[in-house]
Structure formats: structure tokens, C-alpha cells
Specification:
The structure holds 2 protein chains of 2 kinds. Chain A is mostly helical. Chain A is built from 11 helices and 2 strands. Helices cover 74% and strands 3% of the residues of chain A. In chain A, a hairpin with a 3-residue loop joins strand 1 and strand 2. Classes of the chains: A mainly alpha, B mainly alpha.
Chain lengths: 304, 325
């Protein structure tokens, strides 16, 4: 029972990470109509910036700041240099150009940092474990990630529903010619939205740095999970991204624990582990297929 | 220049390169030409979905890898004198390419039918992400399933047999690969002029009108998607024999991206475009790769420039005319 509660928390932690990734993707798609494969590279940039600064200064918090700045800057630069020219192109061109950006980022980072993974330490203030109600002992850093992710989700929701910037973002999703005609500088708005999404991705990368190793190619598996999230949630919907992220995080984590056990009831242990593990690695895709069967536009997607 | 002349020139250059390798006694050049033919074939499959059918699939590595694993599993079980399954009937592996190919085609077509049937319920950017996600599902399955090498891949110690040929001789294997490529190109060209091909073209250009005329858009596109997956699966079966090795990396999203690069570099919707694209990619890999180990950085920069400024790819630039639709 305690194991299960712990795994649910792990699932939540994966979920909020995925939300930070998916939020940027879904915003960029909703506002600019762009599919950005290079979003995973921004995640990697954030993780590397955090690792480099944290190693140099000894402070994880400075590293976290650096990850936000580096990812937002990298996002703004690629938006101005490359991405801006892709808004009017078809999806095929967008896929190829952003795929090329992945090659540039991955190889560039490998050039700068080498092929070996970097390691980030959990900051002292968050090291150790906490005992939650019910006697669940849980690592403090993972709990911190859940809280930060949850707070950012609420913050992003408020930003979009209650601020002038959020109003412009929503207007941009609905009718970009109209808000340009009303005097909003749409080019700057696009750059801001892109940099905002990039900063969230970079922060996600920095936050998982102490849990996983920081290495080239770390972004793409997360990117593909984030795609699954926004397909489930509905492209362009922040609320959908949040619900989808939690669903995917919980399905993936719990599937890995529960499926081998479930197969153990009618298969011998080694076969149960094999079949269970294989099926668990496919579980989120089956979830996605199931959602699409009933809601081809995702849970919160509009009818277009 | 007309597109037909360019296509013939591309294929003639490929065959010429292989014969040059034979005359100059440079088997490496023949192997590179074989690689171009096989990867070009994979691209022809994807091009049928993207260029002819308007379906931007970012998951063709799934079919490529399934084709590869068909060859890998059948050949390696035969070479190890194991049986594939003993229930309900005993089936043993084989090293005959002529048996590998139909099975590779059938399995990749079946997979494309399943994935296509679900993915085609959506369109646009959803379609791109979903095809990518399903391919990734197959990839993770291959990694976590330990029977056939899992993450380490599966070696094939001896290249599979083709009746009457010594396939270990590079030029013979090139002949097999190139012959298949030509046969498939001929088939695709015929198919595009058939009523089905015209219907597919119409669906890409104006789906609403096609539906109004009483043709089922979904069925036409799904059929095209299955054919596309089958061609790429066949290429995968050959690719496994070329490398004498299959691994989950054949199934990875980067492979999907590379096949897509061949199509776009060559020119979307152009018959022989993927072959030209694969050739350019492999030449670049050889030149840049010999110059710096970070060649992918420069490849990425070049691709961005191509997408932004040289639309239409190689064939489009040479033909000097945009395709319709």
C-alpha cells in the first residue's frame, strides 16, 4: 500500500515534468500553428546550463536561474533566426527544419561538453526524505518537483486567463490577423510565447537533472511523451496538457509496477516480468489509441 | 528538363557508380551505392505516403524496422539451427531472401494497416505526432522484449541467399537491391496513373470534392498508407542483409527523420527523388564525416538552409517547375 502511494507520487512527479514540456509545445502550436520537434533540445539546453553553472558556482539555485535564462535565450534566438520563417509553411517543412535544429543542438552541445553525461547533485536544503501523512517516506527533492510543477501549472493558468499577455495569447489563437490589426505587435508576441515555452522546457530539464543524468539526447524521449500528452489532452489546450500529463505520468509509472504483478497471477514469474515490462512500455501509447478512438481531437480539443 | 529525364539520369548515375566501383575494384563504393538503393527504396515508400497521399508520417521507422527484424529473426534462427516456434506446427527459420521479402511486406503492411486505421482518424499535426508515437511504441517494445537481442540487436552472420547469386559478392547484392528498387519504382509509376492513383492524387488536392464525388477518402488514404508501409518494410528487410545486423535503432525516431530527409532533399512527390536524396545524404555523410566527427551539426545547418531557401529539393530545382497541389 505504501509502495503504491509512493508510485502514485512518482507518477505525479513525471506528470508535472511532462506538463512543463507539453505546455510550451501546446502553446506554440495553439498560437503559431507550429509543430516544434526542437522543444526537447531546449529541455536539454536547460539541463546542461543548470549542470554547468551549478558545478562552477556550487549553487543549484543559480543553476536553476541559468537554465531558465539559457533556454529562454536559445528559444528566442531560434525563433528569430529560423522558426519565424516557418509559420506560413506546411507541417512537413516545420518538421524537417526543427528536426535539423535537433541535429544542430545535439551536436553543438556534444561539441561543447563532450559525450559523457554530467551529474547534478540534489541541493543540500532538499536532500533527504520527508515523512508524509500515512507514514510514506518520500524523497524531498521529488516532492519539491511536484510542488514547483503544480505551482507553475496554476501560475500559467492564471497568466493565460487573467493577464494582458494571456489575453493576447488567447486572441492570437483565435484570430491572428485581427489582433495584429488592433495594434498588437504580433512578431514580438510570438517571440515571447516561444521563449516562455522554451523557459518552461529548460526548467523541466534542470529539475530532472539531479534525478537522471544530464546527457545529449535526453530531450527526445521526453519530447515524444509530451507529444502523447498533447494528443491526449487536445492540441492547443493548457488544461488538456495538464490532465493529459498527469494521465500519462500515472499510467506509465503505475503500469511498470502493476502490470508485471497482474501477469504474475496467470504466468510464471519470469514470463510475467517480461510480458509485463514489454506491455508497460507500450501502455501510454495504448492509452493514447484508446482516447483517439473516442475523441479524435483529444479530451479538451476543439472541433475543427 | 522533364522529370522523366531526371529520374532516368538519377538511376543511371546510381548504376554507373556501382559499375565504376566494380571496374576500379573499390567494393566500398559498391556498398555505398547499395546503401543508396536500399535507403532510396525506403524513401520511395515514405514518398508514396507524403508526396502522393499527403499523409506526413513521422513513424516509417516502424515498418523499416519490422522488415529488418523479419530478415534478422528468420535468418538468425536458421543459422543457429533453432526453430522459430514449435506450436501449433513447427516452423523453422530460413535464409532465403525470396521468403523473407513476402513476409516482411506482409507484416509491415499489416502493421501499417493497424497504425494507419487509427492515425487516419485524425489529420495534420495530430497525424504527425500519432505516427511518431506508435513507431516509438514499437521501438520500446523491441528494446524491452529480450528474445531477439533486445537492446543489443541481432547479428546475422551470413547474408541471406538469393537463388543463383552469391550475395556476399557486393555487385551481386547491389544487383538484387537495385533490381528491386527499379521494380518498385516502375510499380509506383504505374499505380499513380491507375484509377487508384488518380483518386489518391485527388484526395491530396481536394478531399472535400472527392468525398462529394462518392469516393471514400479514408479508404483511399488507408490503402496508400499500407502500400507505403509495405515498400518501406521491404527496404528494411534488404537493409538488415546489407549490414548483417538488426537493432532497435532501425526503429528509432531518428531513422524516421532520416527517411523523411531523403524524401525532402530529393523533392517531395517526385518519383526518383528519394533516391537522389539518399545519395546526397550519404555523400554528405562521407565528405563531412571524413572532415569532422561533428558532421551532424553541419548537416543540420544545411538542412535548415535547404528548407528555408531551396524548396522542391534536388528534382524540384532541376525540373524548375513546382508540382501541382
Amino acid at each position: 500500500m505504501i509502495l503504491l502511494a509512493e508510485q502514485i507520487l512518482n507518477g505525479l512527479q513525471l506528470g508535472v515534468m511532462l506538463f512543463l514540456m507539453a505546455a510550451g509545445l501546446t502553446l506554440v502550436f495553439g498560437v503559431m500553428g507550429l509543430i516544434n520537434l526542437a522543444h526537447g533540445s531546449l529541455y536539454m539546453v536547460g539541463a546542461f546550463a543548470c549542470a554547468a553553472v551549478a558545478t562552477a558556482t556550487g549553487s543549484f539555485w543559480l543553476g536553476l536561474m541559468a537554465s531558465l535564462i539559457a533556454a529562454a535565450a536559445a528559444g528566442a534566438i531560434i525563433e528569430i533566426v529560423v522558426i519565424r520563417r516557418l509559420y506560413d509553411r506546411d507541417h512537413l517543412d516545420q518538421v524537417l527544419a526543427t528536426f535539423a535544429l535537433i541535429l544542430v543542438f545535439s551536436e553543438g552541445v556534444r561539441w561543447a561538453f563532450g559525450s559523457f553525461p554530467l551529474y547534478l547533485d540534489v541541493p543540500d536544503a532538499l536532500a533527504g526524505t520527508v515523512t508524509l501523512p500515512g507514514g510514506i517516506v518520500y524523497p524531498m527533492f521529488r516532492l519539491f518537483i511536484i510542488l514547483v510543477g503544480g505551482a507553475l501549472a496554476i501560475g500559467l493558468g492564471l497568466l493565460i486567463s487573467h493577464t494582458r499577455l494571456g489575453m493576447r495569447i488567447r486572441a492570437g489563437e483565435n484570430d491572428r490577423e485581427m489582433i495584429a490589426a488592433l495594434g498588437v505587435n504580433i512578431r514580438t508576441l510570438y517571440t515571447i510565447v516561444f521563449a516562455l515555452g522554451a523557459a518552461l522546457a529548460g526548467l523541466a530539464g534542470a529539475l530532472v537533472g539531479p534525478i537522471q543524468s544530464v546527457q545529449v539526447g535526453m530531450g527526445e524521449p521526453v519530447l515524444i511523451l509530451a507529444f502523447v500528452v498533447i494528443v491526449i489532452g487536445g492540441i492547443g489546450s493548457i488544461k488538456g496538457a495538464f490532465v493529459g500529463a498527469l494521465l500519462v505520468g500515472l499510467t506509465d509509472t503505475l503500469g511498470r509496477i502493476l502490470l508485471p504483478v497482474a501477469f504474475g497471477w496467470f504466468l510464471d514469474p519470469s514470463a510475467a516480468t517480461t510480458v509485463g515490462a514489454s506491455l508497460a512500455s507500450m501502455s501510454i501509447y495504448l492509452l493514447m489509441a484508446g482516447v483517439l478512438l473516442f475523441r479524435p481531437r483529444g479530451l479538451f480539443g476543439g472541433a475543427t | 528538363m522533364s522529370e522523366r529525364v531526371i529520374s532516368v539520369a538519377i538511376l543511371a548515375a546510381l548504376i554507373g557508380a556501382a559499375f565504376f566501383g566494380k571496374l576500379a575494384d573499390e567494393p566500398y563504393i559498391i556498398t555505398l551505392a547499395t546503401k543508396v538503393a536500399i535507403l532510396g527504396l525506403a524513401g520511395v515508400g515514405l514518398n508514396f505516403a507524403i508526396g502522393s497521399g499527403g499523409m506526413v508520417s513521422f513513424g516509417h521507422a516502424a515498418y523499416f524496422g519490422v522488415g529488418g527484424y523479419v530478415t534478422g529473426i528468420l535468418a538468425s534462427t536458421a543459422l543457429n539451427y533453432e526453430v522459430l516456434t514449435s506450436w501449433p506446427i513447427e516452423i523453422s527459420g530460413t535464409t532465403q531472401m525470396l521468403i523473407h521479402w513476402p513476409i516482411a511486406i506482409a507484416l509491415s503492411a499489416g502493421l501499417a494497416l493497424l497504425i494507419g486505421a487509427m492515425s487516419l482518424r485524425t489529420s495534420g499535426v495530430y497525424f504527425i505526432m500519432i505516427t511518431l508515437a506508435f513507431a516509438q511504441m514499437i521501438y520500446y517494445f523491441a528494446i524491452s522484449w529480450p528474445s531477439y537481442g533486445g537492446e543489443d540487436g541481432l547479428p546475422i552472420y551470413v547474408r541471406s541467399d538469393f537463388p543463383g547469386l552469391n550475395t556476399l559478392d557486393p555487385i551481386s547484392f547491389f544487383g538484387v537491391a537495385c533490381g528491386l528498387l527499379l521494380a518498385v519504382l516502375w510499380g509506383v509509376a504505374r499505380l499513380m496513373r491507375s484509377p487508384f492513383g488518380l483518386a489518391l492524387e485527388a484526395v491530396r488536392q481536394n478531399p472535400a470534392r472527392v468525398t462529394a464525388m462518392g469516393l471514400g477518402q479514408y479508404r483511399v488514404q488507408l490503402t496508400a498508407f499500407v502500400i507505403s508501409g509495405a515498400i518501406t518494410g521491404l527496404a528494411g528487410a534488404l537493409y538488415a542483409d546489407l549490414n548483417r545486423f538488426v537493432s532497435p535503432s532501425m526503429l528509432s525516431w531518428a531513422t524516421s527523420g532520416e527517411i523523411m530527409i531523403f524524401v525532402i532533399l530529393g523533392g517531395v512527390g517526385r518519383l526518383a527523388g528519394p533516391v537522389a536524396g539518399a545519395a546526397l545524404f550519404i555523400i554528405l555523410e562521407q565528405i563531412l564525416g571524413g572532415w569532422t566527427e561533428h558532421w551532424q551539426f553541419f548537416l543540420g545547418v544545411m538542412l535548415i538552409v535547404v528548407v528555408l531557401y531551396a524548396r522542391g529539393g534536388i528534382v524540384g530545382t532541376l525540373a524548375g517547375r513546382r508540382r501541382y497541389g
